[in-house]
Inverse folding.
């Protein structure tokens, strides 16, 4: 019988790691994900988890140790956030290029400067080019489930790419919610054992991993990573199907909420989706035709699903907690790429909201709807809008 | 005269060599560098005087390639396919049985 | 490679059999692209001879990356993992943990040796944090730093291991006599401060001594560190045939003494503490990188060598 407990998002991630049974965990503490390696240490100390916990001296060494361990042919896991993820940056490309299925839990926290420990997506969004698969969780249950799904997808032979699961700092990492912990036997059936076919170092098998790639070979090596990421679309959907069969919870690349007859659709990721669903209910009572959509998978970008979603709306408002200076939000840029050549496109608007842990309130969402309505009526509006700015201190 | 220990390897590597991209760009054939005959690098080549040799094995031990192997009577044999002509063997030979001469091609 | 069975069948005369002190099997393949007379390639050949068929290697981005070969070539008959420049210590920690988690025996006569093979740049400078973490956590692996005294792969830039008065592309002399101003960083002292299971210095000119140290590192449990003196004729502006002579003179002038640290005790192998070491000039005059040194510079270097040698002799006496 699956256990139901109330726990923080960090604990849920640690439980997911425990269920997945990685053999090596190398993690370094950073707010807000510190509790993940702490909880894993407790599991290891109590003998509930049979893993080698390497108490590394920096995040860079954490991901390097995971890369070494994964290359030696074992399942690995780590957790970090923000500056730690930024410190890992160069190794993330190496992990993807070497096709090592490492899974990482990220407590989405913004980047300095100014120093800020609270939530936004800047840390994981800044790693979108690395070749890591990216999931975003709306609540603590999703954090646990998506980590299990991440292991399944990453280790699939058609994919073999590392994966990261982001859940919002403090909003999810430190907030207690009820979570259902699946049974170990069912998880064992779902994930099985990690049996690497390519990457495992053994003296009886003198292979070389990560050698120099001259220009005459490099593009083909990178193309195989591109192919793996494209394969991941199918593999992720299969994993979602199997997860529903085994555990009873349904996941989608993009989850839609009251979008069928919506004129304005609000698209977002992570915990903000929960706020949006309540807001949409309130606006529907007032008679406004509005819907919400939540992107669970950010890499590979769900192009087909975005195109299907876009057909339903007249205005697609993208609410995102990140900014790429000089152009706008990253999710907006990626969504535009998906829709650029469509014959019929909705009006697309970018809303930069909730940076650095600023609370997203219904007032701010009213502003979003007001701007979207103006656009719907044909008025000229800014494409990139910063919502909730305290203009009095600027 | 014993055969170069690398000859069998060259045949193996040439048989197994494939430019097909592997996942993660993993190299599956160890020792494949033997197809690269670095003998073309040298300007000076070691000339061996068998009479002076006392079979101390210093040249065999100190060759960085290694391009020196031992024959059935334990005398050094110089593999000119790979010898880069660095001259360490000649410099270290205690009886000066090896001399570096300019190679005429 | 001559298989071991063939070697055993070879009839070596009795007196000759005594002299072949290194294992005969070769796991390092010729055809690699090291410079002529490369000390690092020779060092790697010795390590592969010592651990042939039983080791997993990790090499960061350095000259050895190129020596090991680009895709799809490999000069090593051993599993090899190329890693980012500064991560050697962390990656060997990860591999060792993974092997232990899989239930394999690590180290020991029949165990798997995990070896990190990094240059002085990737160890003393950018890789110092990872090395420190590896030593402090006490992983059962071996870290070998091959010391060619500069960042050779990127074109002879100075490292913290570059000696006083040396020419490098960062310290090119010039009109302001801007040579290397700082003394050679004693990485071995930093390592010993971590109190590892075994730490030693070795030189490519003394292969039997190096082999003995490699065997010791294999049998002693805990983290082991060996600093290998590997001259680079290209970067030191020395003739290619002088590599071994330089490695030998470095030891004989006490510029790079060979010693071991085990169980809190120091033991000096070479040169003999009871004799006067050779003057440093014999080591300097063979290398083009020291040709800009003035008489004063040479005196400063000689003083540094004798001071460090004195300190080591005292340590060996007190902690012998």
């Amino acid at each position: 019988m699956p256990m139901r407990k109330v726990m923080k998002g960090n604990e849920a991630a640690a439980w997911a790691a425990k269920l997945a049974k990685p053999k090596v965990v190398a993690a370094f503490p950073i707010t807000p994900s510190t509790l993940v390696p702490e909880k894993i240490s407790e599991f290891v100390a109590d003998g509930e988890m049979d893993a080698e916990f390497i108490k590394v001296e920096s995040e860079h060494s954490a991901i390097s140790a995971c890369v070494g361990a994964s290359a030696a042919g074992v399942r690995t896991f780590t957790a970090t956030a923000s500056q730690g993820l930024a410190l890992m940056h160069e190794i993330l490309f190496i992990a993807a290029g070497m096709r090592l299925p490492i899974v990482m839990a990220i407590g989405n926290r913004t980047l300095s400067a100014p120093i800020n420990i609270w939530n936004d997506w800047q840390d994981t969004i800044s790693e979108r080019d690395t070749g890591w698969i990216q999931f975003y969780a709306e609540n603590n249950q999703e954090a646990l489930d998506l980590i299990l799904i991440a292991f399944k997808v990453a280790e699939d032979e058609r994919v073999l790419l590392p994966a990261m699961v982001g859940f919002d700092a403090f909003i999810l990492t430190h907030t207690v919610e009820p979570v259902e912990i699946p049974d170990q036997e069912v998880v064992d059936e779902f994930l099985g054992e990690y049996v690497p076919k390519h990457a495992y170092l053994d003296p009886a098998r003198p292979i070389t991993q990560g050698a120099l790639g001259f220009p005459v070979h490099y593009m083909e090596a990178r193309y195989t990573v591109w192919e793996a990421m494209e394969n991941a679309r199918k593999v992720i959907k299969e994993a979602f199907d199997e997860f529903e069969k085994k555990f009873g919870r349904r996941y989608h690349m993009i989850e839609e909420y009251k979008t069928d007859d919506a004129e304005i659709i609000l698209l977002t990721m992570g915990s903000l989706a929960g706020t949006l669903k309540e807001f949409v209910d309130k606006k529907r009572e007032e008679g406004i035709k509005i819907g919400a959509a939540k992107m669970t998978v950010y890499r590979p970008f769900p192009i087909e699903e975005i195109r299907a979603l876009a057909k339903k709306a007249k205005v697609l408002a993208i609410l995102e907690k990140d900014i790429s200076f000089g152009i706008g939000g990253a999710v907006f840029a990626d969504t535009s790429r998906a829709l650029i050549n469509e014959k019929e496109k909705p009006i697309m608007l970018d809303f930069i909201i909730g940076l650095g842990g600023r609370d997203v309130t219904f007032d701010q969402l009213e502003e979003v709807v007001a701007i979207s309505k103006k656009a719907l009526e044909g008025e000229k509006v800014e494409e990139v809008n910063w919502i909730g700015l305290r203009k009095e201190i600027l | 005269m014993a055969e170069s220990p690398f000859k069998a390897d060259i045949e193996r590597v040439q048989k197994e060599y494939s430019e097909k991209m592997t996942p993660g760009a993993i190299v599956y054939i160890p020792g494949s560098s033997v197809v690269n005959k670095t003998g073309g690098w040298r300007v000076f080549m070691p000339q061996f005087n068998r009479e002076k040799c006392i079979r101390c094995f210093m040249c065999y031990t100190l060759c960085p390639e290694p391009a020196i192997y031992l024959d059935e009577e334990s005398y050094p044999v110089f593999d000119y396919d790979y010898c880069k002509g660095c001259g360490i063997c000649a410099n270290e030979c205690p009886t000066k049985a090896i001399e570096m001469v300019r190679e005429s091609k | 490679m001559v298989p071991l069975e063939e070697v055993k069948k070879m009839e070596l005369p009795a007196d000759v059999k005594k002299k072949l002190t290194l294992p005969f099997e070769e796991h390092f393949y010729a055809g690699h692209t090291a410079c002529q007379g490369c000390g690092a390639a020779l060092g790697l050949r010795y390590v592969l001879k010592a651990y042939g068929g039983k080791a997993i290697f990790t090499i960061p981005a350095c000259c050895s990356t190129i020596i090991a070969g680009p895709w799809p070539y490999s000069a090593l008959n051993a599993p090899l993992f190329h890693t980012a420049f500064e991560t050697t210590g962390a990656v060997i920690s990860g591999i060792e943990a993974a092997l232990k988690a899989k239930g394999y025996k690590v180290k020991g006569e029949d165990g798997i040796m995990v070896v990190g093979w990094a240059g002085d740049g990737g160890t003393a400078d950018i890789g110092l944090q990872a090395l420190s973490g590896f030593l402090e956590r006490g992983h059962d692996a071996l870290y070998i730093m091959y010391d060619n005294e500069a960042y050779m792969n990127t074109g002879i830039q100075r490292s913290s291991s570059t000696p006083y008065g040396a020419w490098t592309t960062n310290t090119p002399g010039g009109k302001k006599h801007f040579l290397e101003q700082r003394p050679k960083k004693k990485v071995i002292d930093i390592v010993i401060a971590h109190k590892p299971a075994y730490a030693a210095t070795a030189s490519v000119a003394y292969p039997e001594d190096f082999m003995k140290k490699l065997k010791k590192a294999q049998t002693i449990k805990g983290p082991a560190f060996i600093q290998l003196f590997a001259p680079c004729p290209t970067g030191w502006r020395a003739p290619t045939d002088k590599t071994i002579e330089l490695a030998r003179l470095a030891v004989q002038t006490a510029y790079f003494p060979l010693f071991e640290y085990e169980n809190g005790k120091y033991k000096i192998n070479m040169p003999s503490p009871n004799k006067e070491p050779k003057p440093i000039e014999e080591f300097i005059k063979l290398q083009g990188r020291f040709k800009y040194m003035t008489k004063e510079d040479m005196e400063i270097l000689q003083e540094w060598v004798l001071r460090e040698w004195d300190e080591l002799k005292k340590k060996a006496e007190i902690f012998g």
User: Anything to note?
Assistant: Chain C has one domain: 36-318. The radius of gyration of chain C is 19 Å. The longest strand of chain C covers residues 113-119. Chain C touches chain A through 45 residues (CB under 8 Å).
